[in-house]
Design a protein that fits this description.
about 240 residues, alpha/beta, Rossmann fold, 2 domains, 5-stranded parallel β-sheet, globular, AB_hydrolase_fold, Alpha/beta hydrolase, hydrolase activity, hydrolase
Length: about 240
């Protein structure tokens, strides 16, 4: 599972460890490279996972979901991942002026102008306490590479509609109904395009209280897609 923009493997474990453990699935998380080659690092880890033994589920949160989905479209039929866990997709195709891309670019500008501390201070304004604490923990790990990593995330394309339609493995999509940075409409569009996908959503406040809410939503969506076969309507957890 791949982290989102400016996030890290610690947060990915908080989201996915318990839901996957309940199914007896081992979780492998990826520590992001702190710089402009963050996406290249993610893709290298996906290649290594696919080359390992046994079937593999891939996915991630926000940027991580984008990278995993695009990478999956590039794999040969029957030789790719067994399924996808895609949490908080932020846009389809080029990022353009998607809220998450604008936020990442603005944060990168703060980091370049005043360092990581300035970026954290700016992010605290208007952020709920749980999010402010998470950013204050994760961003310093990037050091001087934070701005480049955020800019790389803000310019990375997500799968377009054609790419989503080519993903025929079961996919669980998780969204938050009231997240302005990762609009529910994007997750709904992804689900509508993918042949075997199910979307499960939850409130932002529930996610803030327990990050595993998002992982449970993605895993539940995957199970519904895998066992139901056809695309299912979005349901709220």
């Amino acid at each position: 599972m791949l982290p989102g923009s400016g996030s890290d493997e610690v947060f990915v474990r908080a989201v996915f460890a318990a839901p996957l453990r309940a199914l007896g699935i081992d979780l492998q998380t990826v520590a992001p490279r702190p710089g402009g080659d963050v996406v290249a690092g993610y893709r290298a880890e996906l290649d290594a996972a696919l080359a390992g033994p046994g079937p593999v589920l891939v996915g991630g949160i926000s940027l991580g979901a984008h990278v995993a989905a695009v990478w999956a479209t590039e794999q040969s039929s029957g030789a790719g991942p067994a399924g996808l866990l895609l949490a908080l997709p932020a846009w389809t195709g080029p990022p353009r002026d998607a809220p998450a891309a604008l936020t990442a670019r603005a944060t990168a500008a703060y980091a370049r102008a005043g360092g990581v501390e300035a970026a954290v201070a700016a992010a605290r304004a208007g952020s709920p306490p749980w999010l402010a604490a998470e950013l204050a923990r994760a961003w310093p790990r990037y050091g001087t590479g934070l701005a480049d990593a955020l800019d790389a995330a803000a310019s990375e394309p997500a799968p377009d509609a054609a790419g989503l339609r080519s993903l025929t493995v079961p996919a669980g999509i998780a969204a938050l109904v009231d997240d302005p940075v990762h609009p529910l409409s994007v997750a709904e569009h992804w689900c509508a395009q993918m042949p075997r996908a199910a979307l499960v959503s939850a409130p932002l406040a529930a996610f803030g209280a327990d990050p595993a809410v998002l992982g449970r939503a993605a895993v539940l969506g995957y199970l519904r897609a895998a066992h139901g076969g056809a695309q299912e309507r979005a349901e709220r957890s």
